[in-house]
Amino acid sequence: MRFWLIFKILLHPLRWAQDRIDAWVMARVKRQPGPIAITRNRVYILPTRFGYFFALMLLVMLLGAMNYSNSMAFLLTFLLAGIALVCMHHTHANLVSVQLRAGNCEPVFAGETAHFELRIDNPSPTPRYSLAASWPKLEEHAVPGDVAARGSGLFMLSLPAGHRGWLEGRVFSVSTEYPLGLFHAWTWAELDMRCLVFPKPAAHGGEPPAAGGHGGLASSDRSGQDEFAGLRSYRRGDTPRSIHWKSLPKLQHPMVKQFAETLEQDLWLDWSALAALEVEARLSQLTRWVLDAEAARRNYGLRLPGTLIPPGRGDAHRFACLKALALYDADAG
């Protein structure tokens, strides 16, 4: 192990040093609820690859100007060096004084990608150009965006959601290379943001067993407009629309159509009905039944060890059931 570390240091000394510096800095980044104001002492800046090449070019130009004692070559070299210094100032200032705060994070299912919203506020009267937010080591995949003067910009940070439960956001960077790409300025931050990950739904197929649900259809005693139940004699107050006119010539007195309303019993999704499955498989199957029951617009309830959600339907009810499944603790249950 020590030999491999020495080999890594000798092979990539700059990368090793950068990794150690990043680890040292990120270990000191504290998780905060936000907003986080980016001050000057929180902004780091280094030349980019193009910046290093530009500096090497200036060195060659300076040596050439000294060798030939050419005043115009000196002028061009110092002019380009001055532009680089001004560029460094603008790159650093483009990141200073912005404020970071967490946005929304919509729940996802396990196996999908969670998208954390990051809002960057610019309280200054100067626009901020080419800002980018990313997780560590993924800066090259970040999509830069601009933030208007005294405005706000929305940036997305994506993480794969491998397991159900709460997916915590981690340390991220906000960076810029504006205006010329000679310097890379960045800051580290960690906001108090997390995403709820629902269990991965099981494959389609299979209804909740009768023992675990008591689901089904029943006819009520009250009058309705769903199922024809027969004819009865006309009573005062019946509407002409309900009279069965075809039977009038034969019976010589009006008859009224009567209907029985078909009611759907509450569907119970019961943890105990899936005793043959493992914990995660049970949660996946219950998640599938919740989605199917909601799509069929049925009233459904959920029974878990230590948790009982009464029957209902709608987005709020669906979310409550899926959240209970996502946060289910087998050890506590």
UniProtKB/TrEMBL annotation:
The chain crosses the membrane at residues 50-66. The keyword Transmembrane applies. Keywords: Membrane, Transmembrane, Transmembrane helix. It comes from the Bacteria. This is Uncharacterized protein (DUF58 family).
